[in-house]
Specification:
The protein is mainly β. It has helices spanning 119-123, 303-310; strands at residues 4-9, 30-40, 45-55, 59-70, 81-95, 104-117, 127-144, 149-168, 171-192, 198-208, 214-227, 248-250, 253-254, 265-271, 277-285, 288-290, 296-297. β14 (265-271) and β15 form a beta hairpin.
């Protein structure tokens, strides 16, 4: 009968960690920073810090670093090997939740490199290294609870390809391979702070059948998501209207013929980082909504989108 192993991870390289794009609206960039410890029932443990950046809520890149110790045997060696891990990851959002799309779909990939060390390895002039490639997809759904709290549920499926190599001065001594699928289910709670940043607390469960046994992984993550980071670098997501040359009187004046009847005008109050609200006037046209800076929104923009330009 296959054994059942239960693992407790406080921070793991999974869809729970590098998914900040799932929390941001379209055209809003953001940075995520988190740190945690992890432990297993067999007294294995690990610590990681992780950094992630989302470009316009569409493309995510992340990096996790940390030490740990595994009490599971590797390529015939006894348990108790310590290691340092390095893991970059990428995610691309093929679908993005909005007023017309009920969920987000992310395609993700990650790589993890583990470098092991122990007295036994040092005394015998041996080196043990591990590498894991992971490809998968995750579905996310945002559930607003209030103006400052929302829940994000996710379901993911990924395929992991692990390889461990034991080497000595004479060359490679042993190699092990372990490929398996993994299913994950999780939920995050995001709390909006006064400075419009988010505190994120998430938890999830993963299941796989690696190493000829059933494995249940319980994950949790605590991090800070900082929207509007792109403004620091002088970038503002905009779509501009192309004005025909015969409508331009001189470089600084645009002359247009008003439609009949005139386009509808709406005003959205956007929270200011200095307190209070900033009224943003939008003109509705056949192509969408035009903002005060001439940017064109195909659909009615959200408050979060307008904050990226007018929140300061």
């Amino acid at each position: 009968m296959k054994g059942i192993a239960t693992t407790l991870w406080l921070l793991s390289v999974s869809s729970l960690v590098f998914s900040q794009g799932a929390f941001l609206d379209k055209d809003v960039s953001g940075l995520e920073i988190g740190a945690a410890l992890s432990g297993q029932l067999d007294k294995s443990y690990a610590g990681q810090v992780q950094f992630g950046y989302s470009f316009l809520g569409f493309f995510d890149a992340g990096l996790a670093l940390g030490p740990g110790k595994t009490n599971q045997g590797k390529v015939g060696l006894s348990a108790g090997q310590r290691y340092l891990s390095f893991s970059p990851s990428l995610a691309l959002y093929a679908l993005k939740q909005d007023a017309h799309m009920p969920l987000s779909l992310a395609l993700n990939a990650s790589y993890e490199a583990d470098s092991y060390y122990s007295d036994y390895l040092n005394q015998n002039n041996m080196a043990l290294g591990g590498s894991t490639y992971s490809l998968g997809a995750s579905v996310y759904r945002n559930f607003p609870i209030s103006k400052r709290v929302k829940l994000v549920a996710n379901v993911g499926l990924k395929y992991r390809m692990e390889r461990d190599v034991l080497e000595s001065d004479e060359g490679i001594m042993a190699t092990s391979y372990n490929d398996y699928p993994m299913v994950t289910v999780g939920c995050d709670a995001l709390f909006k702070q006064l400075n419009n940043n988010f505190l994120r607390i998430g938890a999830g469960i993963g299941y796989d059948q690696s190493n000829n046994q059933n494995n249940v992984t319980i994950s949790a993550v605590v991090s800070v998501v900082v929207p509007r980071v792109a403004r620091i670098f002088g970038y503002h997501p905009r779509r501009y209207i192309v004005v025909p040359a015969d409508m331009i009187e001189h470089p600084r004046t645009i002359v247009t013929q008003p439609a009949s009847p005139e386009p509808d005008t709406i005003v959205i109050n956007v929270p200011s980082s200095k307190g209070g609200f900033v009224p943003v006037r939008l003109v509705r046209t056949r192509d969408g909504y035009i903002g005060p800076q001439g940017e064109l929104y195909p659909n009615r923009p959200t408050v979060e989108q307008l904050e990226a330009l007018y929140g300061d």
